[in-house]
Amino acid sequence: xxxxxxxxxxxxxxxxxxxxxxxxxxxxxxxxxxxxxxxxxxxxxxxxxxxxxxxxxxxxxxxxxxxxxxxxxxxxxxxxxxxxxxxxxxxxxxxxxxxxxxxxxxxxxxxxxxxxxxxxxxxxxxxxxxxxxxxxxxxxxxxxxxxxxxxxxxxxxxxxxxxxxxxxxxxxxxxxxxxxxxxxxxxxxxxxxxxxxxxxxxxxxxxxxxxxxxxxxxxxxxxxxxxxxxxxxxxxxxxxxxxxxxxxxxxxxxxxxxxxxxxxxxxxxxxxxxxxxxxxxxxxxxxxxxxxxxxxxxxxxxxxxxxxxxxxxxxxxxxxxxxxxxxxxxxxxxxxxxxxxxxxxxxxxxxxxxxxxxxxxxxxxxxxxxxxxxxxxxxxxxxxxxxxxxxxxxxxxxxxxxxxxxxxxxxxxxxxxxxxxxxxxxxxxxxxxxxxxxxxxxxxxxxxxxxxxxxxxxxxxxxxxxxxxxxxxxxxxxxxxxxxxxxxxxxxxxxxxxxxxxxxxxxxxxxxxxxxxxxxxxxxxxxxxxxxxxxxxxxxxxxxxxxxxxxxxxxxxxxxxxxxxxxxxxxxxxxxxxxxxxxxxxxxxxxxxxxxxxxxxxxxxxxxxxxxxxxxx
Length: 617
Prior knowledge:
The chain has 617 residues and is α+β, with helices and mostly antiparallel strands.
């Protein structure tokens, strides 16, 4: 995916993640704040609504009680005119009274004012009404539940106060029917000009949960709808005051609101708002925020696309230039633009110019190195051929002199001749080792699976044939295999085992082991011979550097240098650990990048990890 696509995509994803995360946090906090504010507002409005209803009920009850004590109302049977006049005064002064009635002691309706009520009385008696029997039984003012009025033929609630004769006996009831629609206008909680669905709704129920007033839907009153199943109504009728969320099964919607009981009549007062309506401003804000965020994301993506193209264009040109240079066109140069990428292209061009200037010098050095290597090869060839003949002549004539004139020569002369022949032979061996060391770098490396156990057995057998008088115990672990050039692996192992054989020459009951290390693909050749001082270990693998004198142990000092060069050709490593008089421990691998075991010299000579293939002694 190109940078011109990645950059706007990353910007869009970053904006989206940021907007979603911030929006989620803000939404959670804002939703809680809106709900808390709605509940506080509903609680205040419910208290206001309840206070207005209580005030009107109390005023109406006091007015009825005051006029009921007058002689004109109590004596309505003899003359109804005073009672009608008192009723008209009440109706004129009250905002909630719809009609006034006088009820006799047997429940008969004696008078109804005003007279223009719809239709005749449905029944001439209210003796069957619970509120009337309660007035007679209690002898006190009573507020009824919702019922169908005999005067208006509509749902009604009445306030009834007892009529008494001079002796104080109850002789009837002075009754005021309440205009229920007036209760929906008290303390209006719906904003002027708004529909009820857009704000909080106040409602009243009687003691049974039947709707007396509903500011949102008057039909509930006309139909005497039962709201007793609504959790808020049920709690208020039980005397509880609170605010919260609930589901209204009658209106089939979730509500946010407050509720409280109305002292006196025992009604329930509820003020509630549909939850979705209360949260509608927040939802609109969220919608606007999402639209705005998307717009910002689109704009930023567009800006990112433009920036991506501007940034990607010089990068593509620089990439193309580097690819052409890598493909063998060193004279190509990158176009230089403004900004950091342009500066990078300029430095790239400067690097190419510097490389071009140094190319001739590097070629001259490479040619000089090749010539020097050729001269070294010629020198090695000369050494191997031109020096061998004189050395063979010196050794041969010395041998002839000993054979022909040995009996006539003094012992001192014979000793000198022996030393001369030994020096010539040592120099011949040294030439052979030098040629072998130089060939290591030239031989093609051909890796194959090498059985080091079998190879070690063959080398040890040859060592024993060449030195039959020595009794050396050799333990070779079985199954030692590695990936290496077979010829080079033999050179390395032959030198390591030859060293171990040589340096145990003065050891009583000598012992050599060939085993696997604790780390995979690492191997160990160890002996309990002369060992060496680890302070000198840095010179161990340098050509011609010997840690022991020629008088103590023969050799040319090339063997371990050859081993190291073989292992380096394979990408491997070698490490030596030793202690004077306790032996030497060579840990090595033919694998590149292999991390070796810890450098430690055991207190006792190690035995093979696996069962030994053979023990020679």
